[in-house]
Each structure stands twice: as structure tokens, then as C-alpha cells.
Fold each of these.
Amino acid sequence: MDIVGFFGKKLEEKTGIKEIACKGMIRLAFRDAGIDSTTFKLEDYKKVFSDNLKSRFEKTGIDNPTTLANYMISELIKNQGLFTMSA
Amino acid sequence: MELLNDSFVFLISFIRGFIGIILIIRARKTKLTNLYALAITIFCECIGYLFYTSILNNLFIFYTFMSVMWFPLIIFIDKTFYQEKKSPFKFFLLLSIIFAITKIVVVGIYQFGPIQDSNLLFLGRISLSIALGATAVWLNYASYTSYIKIKSDKGVEPWIKTRYLLVIFYTIAQIGIAITWPFFPYDKSINIPYILGALSLVIFIFAQFLAWVMPAGFKKWLNRNYTLGDKEEELSEEEIMKSFKEG
């Protein structure tokens, strides 16, 4: 399963920005962190969302980058079962 | 009758051992350590069952394995659904410790003590049933609440949703086993609770097999109406950043 796609969709729902760009943004954050985006690890995702994705949000000047990153982390925690269920 | 019981137990042990091996392979591949915990639970059960046959007949070893198996199972549930969330892990850990000690002590007294009182064995069975039932309820609840969040999400493939449903389903069967187990006959003959328990066990193992082994043909069939969509082109870094800047 495309877990990046799943969270890209969540980001699209929150920001209204096209899904393709949201997915791309998450992939860029993974690239910045030097972590493989096909990882099944919650801690990797959390690190990427809290550091790299937030930093990317800040660079774009989007409103409330911290709130947005926290939203992504809360969605991650809520849906953590997916990592095991899609393995 | 013993031959029938033994054949049944060997068969389910073999299937469960196979599920455990598949989980180990998957855990190595995905680096999901919680799957090791689930595999250890299954191996404990698998080995424990063998001591419930007339060949290896040893209730003390059977109950010891059945006591140890809960610890990796509650770790699995906690690591799968409750990381960085409020979790009843400590409660279930305490429950598992209490009932593990109870089971081992009473069955130890029954097997090695001077008096073979069937009330002791009944107490051991009740302890096993409570631990089994409580953990099944927890796994059922955790899976169900997670499933609710993704059930209408089109991005989640049908086979993954089915895996959630199978876990929900097999934990219900597990509760059925927990309810009937204390009333199994002591002489390994067959009575109504035994039939219902055995039926629940077969359903449990079949659903667990489908959930965790998920044969390729079954997975393909579940995804038969699912389309991933056309391979979409990826945007360049500049385009992505621009999309976000423009909001």
C-alpha cells in the first residue's frame, strides 16, 4: 500500500492543495531526512513529519506550519495500525 | 477418540506454525518488530497444543506455554495500535501476570501434588479463559476502532480492510473458545462445549491464516474491483513548492 499516498490525501483534505503536490511534499520531506519513504516505521514518519515536513511548510510560507505538522502527526498516531495491517 | 483429538491438535499446530513462520519472514522484511511478538505468541500456542495430545500429554507444560503466550500478544497489540497513545497495556500486563501465576501454580499442584482435585484444574481453566477472553476483547476493540477510521477511505486497498475484518472476526471466535474451554471434558471425550470450542478454534485458525498469510490469490480476488488509478506524473520540486506557496 502507498502509505505516503494515504497521508498525502490527509494533507490535501486539510489544506485544499492538490493531492499530487501533497504527496510530493511528503516525499520531499523523506528525501530531506534521508529516510526511505516505503518504511513501515511509525517513528520514521513521526520524525519526518515533525522536522522535515514542518521545515518544508515553513519554507513555502504556508499559514500555521506547526499546526499543520501536528495535524499530520495526529493523523499518523490515529492510523498507526495501517503500518502493520498493510505489511 | 484420542486419535481424533491428537490428529486435530497436530493439524492445528502445523497450520499455526506455518502462520508463525510467515510472520517472522514478514517481520524481517518490513522490520516491524511487533510482528515478531505475534509470531512468538503463535509459536507458544503451537508448542503448547502439542502437550495437550495423548503422546506428549503434560498439562503443566501446556499451561506454562499458554501462560507465557499472553505477554508477547499484549506487546503486539500495544505496539500495533497504541504507540504514543493512552494504552491499557499495564492493566493487561498485570492481568496476564496474575492469571499466568494462577494457572501455573494450580496446574502444578494438580499435576505434581498429592491430591488430583479437578477443582484445581477448573480454576486453571478459568484463569486461562479470562486471560484469553480479555486479550481477545482488547484486540477486537483496537482493530475495530482502527478499522472504522479507514473503512470508507478509497486509498486503502480492500485486502487491507479485509485483514482488519478478519482480525475482528477471529477475536470473536477466540472469545468463543474462552467461554467453552472451562467446560471441556477432563477425560478428552467429546461434549457440547468441546464441539463448540473446537468449531470456534477452527474458525479462529482459518480466519487468522487468511488474515496473516493472506495468500496471493485471495489478495488478488479481494482487490478485483480496485484500481490504483493511472500512473500519475510526479511534480518537480519547484512545482510542489509553488503549489504550497500559492495555497
Amino acid sequence: MTSAPRWRRFDEWDARMLRHDLFAAEDPEAGFATFHSPWDPSPSVRVEDGRVVEIDGKPEAEFDILDAYIAAHHLDLEAIGEAMAMDPVDVARMLVDINVPRPKLERLARGMTPAKLVSVVSAMSSLEIAFAYAKMRQRRTPGNQAHVTNAKDDPLQLAADAATAVALGFDEIETTMRVASNSWANAMACAVGAAVGRGGVLFQCSIEEAEELKIGMAGFTSYAETVSVYGSEAAFIDGDDTPWSKAFLTAAYASRGIKARCTSGASAELLMGFHERQSVLYLEARCLCLQRAMGVQGTQNGGIDGAPLTTSMAGGMRELMAENLIAVWLGLECASGNDTRVSESEIRVGAKITPYLLAGSDLLCSGFGSIRKYDNTFNPSLFNGEEIEDYLALQRDFEADGGLTPVEEGEVSHLRMRAIRAIAAVFAELGLAEVSEQRMVSVAAASGSQETDSFTPGEVTRISDAIRERGLTAVDVVRALARRGFDAEARNLMLMLRQRISGDYLQTSAILRDGKVVSALNDPNDYQGPGSGYRMPDARWQAVRNVRDLQTRDKVLERERRQDPTAPPWLVPQAEAAKGEDPHEVVIGLSPAFGGELSRTTAGHDLIDVVLALTEGIREGGGVPRLVRIRHTADTSFLGLTAARLSGSGYGIGIQAKGTAVIHRADRLPHMNIELFSNAPVTTLEHYRAMGRNAALYAHGQAPEPVVVPVDGQSLAARYHVRVAMLYAIETGLVVPEAPPLELSMTLGQGGLST
Amino acid sequence: MTDPLDLYPISEKSPGSAVSASGMPLDRLTLEEVMSGRVGTGDIRISAEVLRLQAGIARSAGRDRLALNLERAAELVDVPQDVILETYEMLRPGRLTDPALLSARAEMLRRDYGAHAIAAMIDEAVAVYSRRNLFRRRY
């Protein structure tokens, strides 16, 4: 006996993109644990003489740098007794209870240790976590952040892509460089690009701390999010910082009017090799308590670089959502990950973003790749330039505001060119570089840097060095823009400088909309169930749903319109159709709008060609075709049966204008047809010819092989049903219930065809 | 007394209280002033006064940790960039082997810039670094 063969489906599964993803077994000792590891401590706290002397089972003498900072600055003595005594499931229920207000829960979080916070969110399902996130997140209006980088550090492309990102609705833009010394050129280019069009977008240039502060002080950037913290002492030290050095840096950013957020996230410690056998959520909870303690306004978490490692674990996506929930519960702004691409499977990518679209977030992605994947210097994002329209469709599907807005071709082309001319003008005015028209056009049209003829990295470095060495600032750029006639852009950049003086965007969850600060203070999330919280205003929903190439009845009917509306009809009705006598006759029953109001099948075949294919096929099979117009129905089965009953042979063909066709026989029940072409979009003229031939062969008493229209699994419904529904409505609109079928003669060109 | 929260956003509700580090009021920070050459680097820097105002707003909004951070920031407004970067570097692990140098830095910031909260934070770091053996060379 031969052994059972390998099922070839496995070969097909092996070939799918999903199989590039790695899935890791649970192994807490190796740090592969999401919500719980045997080495995680149990929640505990002890307070003596007004100081915390024990956290999560560890006495003060053994506090590491995180414990020490959390004990001194996170735990709120006033809330600690009540919060730590509560049953975790009870607190979890409060988190999803619309009747328990957010401030009450935030007060409890201030009295909870990391292990206690973990015990609460561990009791929640993914759905409950997402719901609690919608309730607990800080700013009511959701937002999003874009990565704007390219593989050449080309300033022209950075300016164009920054302007594009602004047009798409991003609230923040983050850049970084392939070559560190290009940072000043990148910063200037993005700052100029972001000032084109709507303007008023926060911008950061991610680089080594000292340089980032300098670029910020020069007025080019307005926020920083590279204040990384880690959940174990060893990882923290390896990351070359301590809670105190980071707290100092956080204050330093604010002292320069720069918004800052921390970065942390599941599996960072695991990647760095210092996980201490503890679950990724527990380590992240420590990071988040620390961030609150440091007084930073917000966090970028949800497994940033560690996200793919986290999603390799069972329940990994749930864990990422849980850590975002802890962040907002602690009152932090949350740029909720959805950053590093966690999977090669587009299905997993779409699933990953969905709970966030539904719940909303301060910044859904802490870096949506607005550029092509290969241009993303941070690494590919969950969503990228290639997939922006997929994201726009998801927003529209769920009526969810993911922070992005559909753009029109003409608008984008204009903005890109404007941004390129603006940065070129600034370079020229400041004596940094002259840009040829050819380079500008090349970049404006390019989807990514592989297509551009622009600055070489060496040229960019010289520009960047000059900006730094000459001490050029955003004020110089404002002046250059205005001198060269870019007045609106100059004013947009001025707006950013003015905002920096007021410090308004230093408050929690601040972004700018229409030049005004919107934050958790003046736009607090007030979700308390249906009818409350964020709902898209009408104008916003109008913009979100208006994706590119919407099908409208006007457009569909325009497409159907015959070339020459004054041309005489090619199907001419005659007298009422009678039953035929010829035993080889095959009647073709045409639907009410066939060849009149509608002129093409969904496959695009002219209905004249379809009728010719059918009639020629019938003749090839030894049959005699006869055309009739059926008016009392537009349904394929009844068209076919009506035709069959008029046919001398008892065999007939029914066909709708969209191309759906059937062979029927007079003595059959309506839906028991002989052959059916139900997939009109993939039906060829050769198929119609074969159908005619078969009908004639049946009429001769033969049993031919049925004609099979092959399908390869496309979603014909997704591709055609909108148009089909609109077209079919025209057919049904012409139905006259009592009207008898009419004989048709066919008039083509000079001769015509008489049936 | 009015709630500080009523002043927020300062740029809309109380632009008169927004004065840059150089003392330039917000309403003078216009394109026309920039074009006339009367706006310099100091004019686009936030002031300690505004940071303290924002700290009060944050505290009033129930965000006391953020308020403390903004107050520490206010103390750093007048601290020169190189001193800030040098202090940050000193606070990083393994940069110093002698705790006294960090304590001295705290004292200098307290004395020269009135940065009491910052100095207290550094003193706290000295104590924890000593206990956790972080005053050791890493390179």
C-alpha cells in the first residue's frame, strides 16, 4: 500500500506571504511570555512613614533604578491603599463600564504598582481592551503620525513627501536619515514641506539626543519621541540611560518649547537580551509607571521595534493593545505603535489596525509610512505609501476616523511641485544649492527615490553641514520663503514658531488643527457610551467617505451610453412573437434593456458581437436562431424558459444585457436550466458561440459537453456588483408584467440580418 | 481667583501672557517683524514664565507629574545648551566614577540658575546610582 501523499494545499500554504512570519512557542524562561511569566512578581506595596518601602514583593533595599523612581514619583500615597486592595477583575469591569468616569480610573492607576496594573488588564479580552482604550484614551479627536524619509536623504523628495503627508491629514511628521550628518538638511526640507498647504503639523527629526535638541532649538522641529525607556535595569543601562537622565532630558526638551514623548514597548528588553525572564507586559508596565513618574506628557508604545517579536507569541496583538491601554489609563498621550510592520501577511496587517480604527487613538500609528517601503529609513511600517488607499477604505468601511483624508490627484500634484519649488527657493535664497527644473520635475513625479534624478547623498551632506555651521534657523527659512514669494508657507512656519512661545502643545496629547492646539485639556475624551465621545462631524465624514473613483449612477450610465445616440436601433421590434414550428429552431430571448438602453456586457463585449456569437454558434450546431424581445421579466431563468417555450425545438437561450445567459428547455422548472453562464465578467465571445452551438446540438437530441466558463477565484462581486446593481435596475425598470414577447429583426450596417 | 485652566490655550485665551525668552510678546512675532530683521534666535524660545503658567494649567487639569516636569523645564530655560548637554551626559550611566562631581553639578545649577527642582533630582540620582553601583566606567 502506498503511503498517503502530502496534501498539496500545504505547498500552497508554504508559498503564502504568511509563512515568512515566525511564530514562537511560549517560553517564559527565554523571555517569550506575553501577559504572565512564573518570574513575574505578585502585586504588593508597603508604605512606612509616608514612603513606599516595598513594590511588587521587593523591599526598598533591593529596589533597582526603576523601582526607586516609581516608588518615589509614580505611586500616589493618597490612592495607593484603595487601589491596591481592589480585586483586579472589579477594576477591569470598571474600565469597560461607561458609567465609571475616566478621572476616577486614572486616580486608581496612580495608586497601582506595575504588577497590579498587569493583573487588571490580564483579566480583559481583546474586545474589552479595545473598548476600554476607546474610553480611556486622552484626546477626544483621533490623530495620526507619518514617517517621511527616503533612501537618498533627498531634500526635494522630503519636502514633496512632507507636503503630501500634510495633505493626507497627518498631525505629526517624523523623519530620520540614512546618513547622520544629513540631519540638518532633512530637518529644513521637512519643515518647509510641512508648511505647504494646510500647514500646522508637528515635526520631529529623530537623531542622537544632543543633535536633536540643537535642531529643535533652531526652530525646525517641534517634538521629539526618542526618549526611550526600558523595563529592566540592565536594559536601561545598556540603552545608555537611567530614569534620571531621561527625566532630565524630558525637562530639557520642554525648556526649549519642544513637545516630548517617551518610547517603550513590549519585547524591547527581549531584543536587548535583558528580559529577566519576566513577561513583556510586566516589563512594559514598569516603563509606563516610570514615564508617568518622569512627568512626560505621553508615550509611543505598543511594541515599537519589538512588535514583530511580540506578535510572534500567542496573544501578542492582545498584549500590544493591553500595554496601550495601561498607557492611557495612566493619563499619558499614546502614539499607539502600529509602526513596525509586524507581518508579511496583509490579512494580519489589516487585522492589527482594526481595533485601533474602531477605538481611535491620539496617534493611531507612531509612524505610518507615508512613503514607499524601501524609502522608510526606520524600516517598513505596518501601513506604507503602497497601502494608504487600503487604510482610507478601512476608515470608510467602519465609519472610523483614522486621521487620514483621501486626496485628489490634481491637488497632490500641485502641492508636491509647490513644496519642491519652496525648498529649492530656500536653498537658492540662502546660497545652499541651485536646483535644476529637471530635478524638480523628476522628484515631483516619482513615487520613491529609486525613480528620482536628484541630489546625491554627498551633495546633501554639504548642504546639511552648511546649515549647521552657519547656524541657520527657522527664522532664516521664514525670511527666505517670504522673499521668494512663498508667503503662505512663510506664515505657516511662523505659526509653528508662535506656538512654541505659548507652550500650548506641551500639554498632554496636543496636536494642531487649523492652526490651533487641540489637546486632552481643551478636547478631552468624554466617552460615556453611545451618543458621547468622538463622532466624525458631517464635513469630516464627507471627506473620509469620498475615496477616489467613487461609482455613481451618472458615471456608470455614461459608460453605457452608445457612441452615437442618434444612430437607428439595431434591434427592431416587430409583431408579437409566436411559437415556432421548426424543430431545429433555437429562440434567443433578450432582456428588456438589451441592445437598447444597455449596450455592453460586464465583460465589455458589445451586445451586437454577443448576439452574432450566439447566432453563429447556433448555425454551426445546425440550428436556426430567432431573436425575441422579452418584456415581462428580466430574470435570466424566466428569460430562458420563455424563449424555450417559443422555440420550435423547445430549446431557448435567455440573456441579460450584462451578459448572464442560460440555455433552457420548455418542459423544465424555471430554475432547472440546462446550462448557465453566471459569471458574465469572465465570459468571452467564444463562450457565447459555444453556448449557441450547444443549444442547437441539444435541439438535435445530442448531449454535448456543457460549456464551462473558467474562474480563477477573483471576487467578481467586489469588482462588478456596484455596476451590475445599477445596470440591472435599468432592466427591471423596463419590465412590463403583461407585455408579450416581440419578434426582433436585426439591422446592421448596409445589409442587416433578418431572423 | 480664576482657574489656570481657563487660560488654556494661552495662544488663544491669553496671548498677552505669552512672552518669549527674550521678552518679545507673542503678538509681535509676525512675518512682518521677521522680514524687518527684528526677530532673533532668543525671540523664538519659550520663557520660564510661560512654562510655569503651563505647569499651573497642567496641575489644574489633574496632571501634577507633568506640572513638575514643566517646572523643572522652567528652571532650565536660562541654562546654556552646552551645560544642559554636559549635565545630561554626566547623568548617563557609567560616565562618572566620582559621585562628588554629580553632586557638585547639582550645587552649581542650584546656585547659578536657581534650579532647585533639577538639583534635587540630581541629588536623588546620586544616592540611587551609589547604591546600584552605577559610578563605574562603562568604556
